[in-house]
Write a structure and sequence with these properties.
Blueprint lengths: L1 E5 L3 E6 L15 H12 L9 E2 L8 E7 L2 H12 L4 E9 L6 E11 L4 E5 L7 E12 L3 E8 L6 H8 L23 E9 L6 E5 L6 H7 L7
Parallel strand pairs: 4-10
Antiparallel strand pairs: 1-2, 2-4, 3-4, 5-9, 5-10, 6-7, 6-8, 8-9, 10-11
Amino acid sequence: MQVIYEDNHIIVVSKRSGEIVQGDKTGDVPLSETVKDYLKVKYQKPGNVFLGVVHRLDRPVSGLVVFARTSKALTRLNKMFAEGQVHKTYWAIVESGKLNPSSLLTHWLTRNEQQNKSYAHDHEVPGSKKAQLRYRLLSRGERFAVVEVELLTGRHHQIRCQLSAVGMPIRGDLKYGARRSNPDGSISLLARRIQFVHPVSGQDITLEAPLPDDPLWQKILTPNSTNV
C-alpha cells in the first residue's frame, strides 16, 4: 500500500492490482483493513479506527482510492461522488487495431449478476443503463496503445465493457475479450488521477497514482516506441 495523500479527514492510497477495497465472500484481507492498521499504528490509536469506504475499484485494477477518516468527510464525499463532483481519469493499455485518436463512446449496458459481467448495446434495451466515456490516445505501439479515459457516467465495468465493444479490449482482461492474461492476473487499467474539492477544508485536490510495475507502461509511453 502506498499513501498518496493524508490529512485528518481523508486518506488516499494507491491500490495494487489484486487487492480488494472492501471485504467480500473471498475472505481476503481488504485494503480498507490494511489502511486501518496503518492508521492505528501511526497514530497509536487504542481502539477501533474509523474508516469510511467511499468508492471502489475492481480487484484487477490498480490506482487511486479515497477513504474518509471522519464521519463528516464520509457524508460529504458520498454526496460528492453521487453528484459527479469527483473527477476520475483512467489510463488503459488497449489493443490498438481499431483505435481512433479520440472519441466519445455511448452505449447502453446490461449487467449479468451471475457472470459479474456487463454487456454493451448500441441502443436502449430493457433493463439497460446509458453509459458514456471519452477517451484520447496518449501513446501507441504496433500492438498496444495507452489511452486516457474520462468517465461521464458510472456503470458496472463500464470502461472494460465499452472499450471492448469497439474492438479495444484492455490488455489482460480475458473477461472482456483480451487475447491473453497478464502474468500477475492484473488488467492494464489504472485509476491514474483524481480531482475534487476537499470535503472539509474546501481546498482543490489533484492527485496522481504512480504507474504499475509492469515495464510495458514505460515502453509504450516512451516517445517513438513502436515495438510493443
